[in-house]
Amino acid sequence: MKKNFKLTHPNIKVPRLVEAIKFEVRKYLKRERNKPLPDTVDFWDFDCRFGADEESAEVIHVSAINKSIDEAEAKQFASFYLEILAKPGRRTKKPVEEPQIDGKEEV
Predict the structure, then answer these.
(1) Cβ(6)–Cβ(78) under 8 Å?
(2) If DSSP codes are grouped into helix, strand and coil, which group holds residue 31?
(3) CB–CB of 39/29 below 8 Å?
(4) Measured between alpha carbons, how far is 107 from 87 in angstroms, rounded to an integer?
(5) Is residue 64 part of a domain?
(6) Does residue 51 sit within a domain?
(7) What digits encode the pLDDT tens for the residues 17-72?
(8) With 0-12 CB in 10 A as exposed, 13-18 as middle and 19+ as buried, what is 21?
């Protein structure tokens, strides 16, 4: 999804527009996550960019989308650009640390 969202409308108030945009984003993410996974993939990951326009868009995390939309509303942007691209994700194992006693490694 690469889209410019407008925060101005002659009949709809800004808070209602913001809620509609957030709903559309959640619906898109859910639809993408429900697509069948390839065999070598663990989950769908997302590359996200947010900004006042496409040229000034910066990379953000998926969990920061709603916060970025709220900031755009607070700064009274007339519109903003949001890009969400699905990509395959693979889980990595966390390194296991061995227990230590009094700062010395156990043998």
Answers:
(1) yes
(2) helix
(3) no
(4) 43
(5) yes
(6) yes
(7) 999 999 999 999 999 999 999 998 999 999 999 999 999 999 999 999 999 999 99
(8) buried
- Strand, coil or helix: what is 65? helix
76, with CB counted inside 10 A (0-12, 13-18, 19+), is: exposed
Residue of 92, 91, 81, 106 whose CA lies nearest to 21: 81
- In angstroms, the CA 25 to CA 64 distance is 12
The pTM (predicted TM-score) of the whole model is 0.81
C-alpha span between 30 and 1 (Å, rounded)? 13
Flag whether 27 is in a domain. Answer: yes
**Structural domain containing residue 53:** 2-90
Question: Which residue's structure tokens are 């407008």?
Answer: 6
d(CA 41, CA 31): 17
Structural domains in the chain (count): 1
Per the document, the length of the chain is: 107
Q: How far apart are the first and last CA of the chain?
A: 53
Q: Is residue 105 part of a domain?
A: no
